[in-house]
Q: What sequence folds into this?
């Protein structure tokens, strides 16, 4: 099994904070997303970015990985974790086995990742009689629509019904499917390359061109329920937030939490120059706005 440098994959330093790691992940996930990227090998790069973020976004996983990395391993070096992986052997890992289902960013992890943190089985080591606990990471698309996800546990394949709008921390009980009793699946949301979650609201960062921000535009915006048209008002600035009502996560199964909205945060990006005509256009903008635009 070969060591993977997750910091190098995301292009950040080992000292990077959560916000920097998240920003790098979103940028690279957009760049290599198989639905839009024309880059060679985009799908494999997209999977690598997702795996790196899944390891570094969780403080416990990151601490376990950092301890291994501190031993001097470099990408491609041969490494063998102790039996059961690092997660349950005093390296700061989670108390639960983690099971990923439902596609999206939660699947397709490498042997290196699975050996470090475990995946798709019951709890490690001998267990006393009683229920088995595990974490089930489901995609936001599954949470939005509800449905069935397939997992492998205890050498069996199980179809798990995930209620629409289920919240993180809620538990699905599968009677008799644990090692010595029932299997209790605690829900968590898998990382998504496009969306973040804040309560029942979904946050999406929309890159727009300077002229779209200045003049206004109507653009197509992805949501968990499909693309919709969004009107960008003229003179919009970077960081402005627009609301798509009812486009967040649906009401939770108890009905205690109402449906959320999608918050679209504008990110103004300057396109790169590819030819003389585009360079000339930027030069005309510079002449038109002068040096005082920062104080406008």
A:
């Amino acid at each position: 099994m070969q060591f993977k440098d997750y910091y190098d994959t995301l292009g950040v330093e080992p000292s990077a904070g959560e916000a920097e790691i998240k920003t790098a992940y979103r940028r690279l996930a957009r760049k290599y997303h198989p639905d839009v990227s024309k880059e060679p090998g985009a799908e494999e790069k997209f999977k690598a970015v997702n795996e790196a973020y899944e390891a570094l976004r969780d403080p416990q996983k990151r601490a376990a990985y950092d301890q291994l990395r501190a031993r001097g391993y470099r990408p491609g070096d041969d490494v063998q974790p102790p039996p059961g992986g690092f997660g349950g052997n005093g390296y700061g890992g989670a108390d639960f086995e983690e099971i990923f289902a439902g596609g999206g960013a939660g699947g397709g992890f490498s042997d290196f990742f699975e050996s470090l943190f475990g995946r798709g089985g019951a709890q490690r080591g001998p267990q006393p009689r009683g229920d088995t606990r595990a974490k089930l990471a489901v995609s936001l698309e599954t949470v939005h629509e509800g449905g069935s996800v397939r997992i492998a546990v205890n050498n069996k394949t199980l179809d798990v019904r995930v209620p629409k709008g289920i919240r993180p921390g809620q538990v699905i009980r599968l009677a008799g499917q644990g090692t010595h009793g029932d299997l209790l699946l605690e829900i968590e949301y898998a990382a998504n390359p496009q969306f973040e979650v804040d309560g029942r609201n979904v946050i999406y960062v929309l890159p727009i061109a300077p002229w779209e921000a200045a003049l206004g535009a109507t653009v197509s915006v992805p949501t968990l329920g499909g693309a919709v048209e969004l009107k960008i008002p003229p003179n919009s600035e970077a960081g402005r937030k627009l609301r798509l009502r009812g486009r967040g996560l649906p009401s939770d199964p108890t009905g205690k939490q109402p449906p959320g909205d999608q918050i679209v945060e504008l990110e103004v990006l300057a396109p790169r120059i590819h030819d003389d005509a585009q360079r000339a256009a930027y030069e005309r903008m510079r002449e038109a706005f002068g040096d005082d635009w920062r104080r406008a």
